[in-house]
Amino acid sequence: MQALTARDLTLGFGDKLIIDDINIEIPKGEITVLIGPNGCGKSTLLRALARLLQPKSGTVILNGKEIAKLKTRDVAKNLAVLPQSPIAPDGLTVYELVKQGRHPYRSFMKQWSKEDEDAVLLALESTNMVDLKDRTVDSLSGGQRQRAWIALTLAQQTDIILLDEPTTYLDLTHQIDVLDLLFDLNEKDGRTIVMVLHDLNLASRYAHHMIAIKDKKVFAQGKPEEVITSELVHDVFQMKCSVACDPMFGTPMCIPHGKGRCVLREVGTETIIS
Question: Which GO terms describe its cellular component (predicted)?
Answer without folding.
Answer: plasma membrane
